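User: quick one, sequence for these tokens?
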């Protein structure tokens, strides 16, 4: 069984997809279709930047979706690659569902732009953030989040701190064993960082991430409401079709082909944890031995190696985003 992996926000960079754009008509057509849907010059943003514009959430999300879909289409046409199951990390779930032919590409591009705008607006700038916790177990981090939330709430009360968002820190991404991203209000994140540093556990560290909002936390509830409204209208207009391949949702980490779950789970994903580690583990027990990562970078390949480490399974991931990686993937597919 062959799987398709699709990366999320953070993997973007100026110049991504340039080799495929120059070489393959289907990739150029994908970027042009995305530009038409967005009403903007996506090619210019991708290849000329500036990086400050590309990294804006409302631009990065459709840009990554377009490049990932273009890479997938190139692999289909040039290598005859057919994936039997698809999954994506956060934003990448939209790319995966386009690959499954469940949602139209043009609609997905518009939706993720709206998603990015809604997520950015959900929390005032400077009041929410995210950190990566390295070297700890899932349950440990969940416990520390609860403790840090209480500590920060007590500090707010005693100091009279005024923030417009609730005090909270939660697990946002279960990326791999010993790699969890937490998300929440700035004061709760700071309390968590101090708590972990104070414990002084060997091999455990916490690092603040350079992000503009507390993604995949309960603070994103306003953005979820926006997406629910968009999906309700899309459903009324019949912009959803049966899946041609299975997918594994971020919310459940359970393989499914049920069309009716797509929109509710995509909406819930906005303010709930991404279960990436659990999703890849689902692949492994489904006798899937190879995945191809479509899009910029090799982040998901690296996570897959960590997830597979120590397990009695054979699981390899191959990126496809330029001519060199396309040729390497061809050798695997032709075996």
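Assistant:
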């Amino acid at each position: 069984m062959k799987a398709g992996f699709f990366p999320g926000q953070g993997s973007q960079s100026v110049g991504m997809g340039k080799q495929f754009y120059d070489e393959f008509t289907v990739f150029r057509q994908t970027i042009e279709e995305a530009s038409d849907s967005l009403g903007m010059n996506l090619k210019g943003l991708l290849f000329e930047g500036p990086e400050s514009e590309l990294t804006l959430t409302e631009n990065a999300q459709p840009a990554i979706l377009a490049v990932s879909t273009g890479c997938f289409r190139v692999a289909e046409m040039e290598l005859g690659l057919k994936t039997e199951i698809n999954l994506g990390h956060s934003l990448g779930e939209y790319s995966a569902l386009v690959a499954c032919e469940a949602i139209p590409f043009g609609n997905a591009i518009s939706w993720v732009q709206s998603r990015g705008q809604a997520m950015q607006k959900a929390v005032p700038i400077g009041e929410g953030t995210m950190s990566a916790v390295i070297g700890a177990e899932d349950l440990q981090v969940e416990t520390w989040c609860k403790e840090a939330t209480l500590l920060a709430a007590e500090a707010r009360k005693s100091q009279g701190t005024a923030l417009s968002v609730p005090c909270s820190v939660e697990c946002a991404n279960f990326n791999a064993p010993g790699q969890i991203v937490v998300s929440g209000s700035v004061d709760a994140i700071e309390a968590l960082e101090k708590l972990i540093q104070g414990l002084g556990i060997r091999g455990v560290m916490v690092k603040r991430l350079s992000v503009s909002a507390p993604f995949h936390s309960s603070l994103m509830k306003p953005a979820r409401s926006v997406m629910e409204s968009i999906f309700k209208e899309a459903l009324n207009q019949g912009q959803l079709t049966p899946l041609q391949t299975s997918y594994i949702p971020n919310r459940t980490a359970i393989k499914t082909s049920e069309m009716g779950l797509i929109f509710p789970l995509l909406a819930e994903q906005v303010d709930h944890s991404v279960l990436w580690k659990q999703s890849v583990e689902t692949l492994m027990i489904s006798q899937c031995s190879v995945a191809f990562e479509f899009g910029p970078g090799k982040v998901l390949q690296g996570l897959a190696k960590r997830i597979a480490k120590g397990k009695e399974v054979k699981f390899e991931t191959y990126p496809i985003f330029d001519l060199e990686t396309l040729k390497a993937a061809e050798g695997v597919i032709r075996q």
